[in-house]
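User: Can you fold this complex?
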Amino acid sequence: MKRNLLFFISLFFFHVALEAQDVPCERVVSYQIHATLNPDNKTVTGTQQLSWTNAGSASTQELYFHLYLNAFKNTQSTFFKEMVARSSSLSDYISRFNQGGWGYCDVRSIAIAGTGTSTSLLSQFMQPDDGNTRDETVFKVDLPRPIAPGDSVTLDIEFVSQLPYRAPRTGYVQDYFFVAQWFPKIGVWSNDEWNCHQFHAHTEFFADYGDYDVHLTVPSDYVVGASGVLSDSTTNGNGTTTYRFLGECIHDFAWTASPRFKVALRTFEHPELPNVRMKLLYQPNHRRFVDAFFDATENTLKYLGLWYIPYPYPQITIVDAACKSSTAGMEYPTLFTTGVDLFVARGSQEPLGLTIHECAHQFFYGIIGSNEFEHAWLDEGFTTYATSRCLNVAYGPGAYSKTYLARGDFGIPFTFPRTIKDQRDWIVENHRNRGRRDYMDKMSWEFVDYLAYRNNAYEKPALMLWTLENYLGEAVFGDIMKAYANRWAFKHPQPEDFFNIVNDFAPEDMSWFFDKLMYEPGVVDYAVGQITSKAPVNIQGYFGSGENMEKRDQDAEQDIFESQVHIKRLGEIQLPVEILVTFENGETITERWNGVEPYKIFYYANETKVEMVEVDPYHKIWLDVNPVNNGKYRTGNSLPAFRWGASWLFWLQDLLEMIAILS
Amino acid sequence: MKIWATIRHAISLVGQHRKMVGIIYLVNLCIGLVFSIPLFILFNRHVSTLTMRDDLLSGLHYSWWSSFNFSAQGLENSIRPSLSGGYGPLFDNLELLLTGQFHSFGWFVFFIALAYLFIAAFFNGGAISLFTDERKSFTTSRFFSGAGANFHHMAALATTSLLVFALLYKLITPLVFSLVDNIVGESTVQSFVWIINLAGYLVIFVLVFLITLIFDYAKVIVINDKKESSWLCIWLSVKFIFSNFFKTTGLNSVLVLGAVIFVIVGGLFISLVQPTQILLLILLTIIQQLFVLIKIGLRLTFYAAETHFFQQHVAAKAVVRKRKR
Ligand SMILES: [Zn+2]
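Assistant: Here's the predicted assembly.
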């Protein structure tokens, strides 16, 4: 018994030792923040000590900071100016903020630590992206002396953050607080210039890695979840408690607090991967989804850990966001938000899809810190791809579901198990609808509209990666992804860095592939056109010459059918394709076509007629926006049309009878 | 007056006049075919040669549907995944009754339905006039002459009913749901939000129930009492229903419950058949058509029960009056 106890104690310490391993990264920033939440005023008052190291090759005498919350300060911010194009949400937000409060982050003082002076540094708002002088989401500080490469500076900053009401990704609703983009956050000194973009209508974030030591003081009845790991807590005696969270090698810090949260804890364990403590903060009426939240998180940590890179942090915090908050479905380092309706349809795979997507961002955003402002596809596209891959492997295809009487948060979901939905079907569907809008590699705020951003950040790159995987083969592509994740963990990769790794592993230079997809708008669509198989024509007419010329009229020599197969390119983007032609005697011919011309005709002479033609028969090209036109029989069969015609008739008859009730 | 006895009597009455159910079914089928045959031809052109066609027998392949729907226009737009299985078509239609979004499947379908409303009104006149005179057996000529003789009343009532329903969906429904939204406020408790919204739909359901009840008895009264003004009958119907509130609503509640059970059982039968081959496809079609036939019978059972109940009530009143004398 005792031996067993000792064994478990040693196992416990071993676990702690394993978890406490240092996460390896270049620490550019170090934040020490003391913040207090005032639930009545919806404010967070904070002091922050920031140490910043110049990791570049030139010195700088100015520092750039984000004040993301100022996007919600007034209608003149760049966020609102850009929202004008999406007018429906614009008026929503204005009325929301007028009702429940606008948001801002006000820097009360900023000074160099340890100088003994309390003199505030001179600062001013900057608008590097659009010159909108009323936008206050970026500010610049002039230092008294330049910071040389390798040198550090430590600043003391006091700030007050007013949390907006139901703003995107942040803010509060009732007693639920999701505190994100909430503190003055330094930009990235990259290529000897400041990379510090304003807050736009649909951009996300970018920052350097470092350590966060954050003390959060909240009312004692509040449950708190945050990036990093809870190190200790102190009850203050005035009805508040201070929680200290430590986050190593992360590039942002978000937290949440609400008295309603329920907490569940589990540990992710896999023989080939480090253990991860999973902390779930869920809504009281979501008890029945606890297993699903954990299961989705575990599958993501497992598959993405095995495929790409092991999740390196000791903990992950899953936040089931309050409804009406606009914060469900967002990623922060070691913490992500998800959400679910009160009732979900069987087979709809909610909340799995959203949970896996946000957890997958721990890899493509959290560990691989690409610039979300400039290359949104490097995080959203990779995440969308990895999500569908993980869902496919862990759960298989889903089924179509419809929500009846849908109204805001109300609805009665119903599954149609006969309508199978592959995890990628919705991606193809969206890409089909908006694939021709703009091209992929653009600054997120420069896309022509929100749909173009969605297409080029999420759908097109995800389908591009699926297509690339099928083109190169699962093994080669697996190596590519692993190499990319390991080489660029805790760094800031550019698109070229991914292309280079692809070219390192691929048997051919794949630049043609990326050139077409990254820098040209348009879609891929190949289709089978006409298929004809005709009996040979009789031998008729004049044959020979001179005296030997004779007129002949006789039957064909052999029973050889002459067949023609038309393949069409309907999309703008040209990719090489395979074509599989099947004859009635079971014989098959595989053709390869470079896919350049608008049409390609293949001719055959065979003992039997062509039965079926498939372009891209193994469905490798997930970019094809219309896979339905990829396979065709030469002859028709009316049964499917009859089946659905009859069901449609039945529906109409029932509708007529229902209308008769109103007569 | 016993509810069960009335319903039993109504069912036997409909059984006695079953040819009438057949006639209405045939009209319903013919109208359905007029629109589904062109749709079938169109649909056949899209799918008959696709390699995906085999999958399309057992279910609606989502990727097929989404790409078909992308370029679909007009009537084709109403082909949708919820048509797969037994419950989808029925739930889609029931949803319309609570939302009033009758144009959601396209204006073309809306106008077909509107035209059918008046055809149904025509047949209602025939059916109720047969039910009011229980001694006589069914003849087609009596059915049609009853329908013809009462059409002006039935059409007037149907038009009024339409206006009342338009008022319900355009004016009262938004009011009910703005009240719902006010009660819900900024609550983050999903179950509360859900229940209040459900209550909103229940209010709409009760209103639909009451409106149909009023117009049903108006039809019965105008034919049974041979009244001149159908508008007056709406008022008489309201008076009748509210003076016998528990009996009239009780009778129709039991009938509605029967209809709900019928939809659940019928939907289940339709769901069970997976028509992967021609015989199963024929079986599925037969079950679907049987469902429509029974549903028509069920609607007529409502009228039969209401007519019988009304006549019983009038007779009982007459006896009381006689005794008083
Ligand atoms: Zn995402």
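Residues A 357, 361, 380, 383 surround zinc ion (CB under 6 Å). The radius of gyration of chain A is 30 Å.
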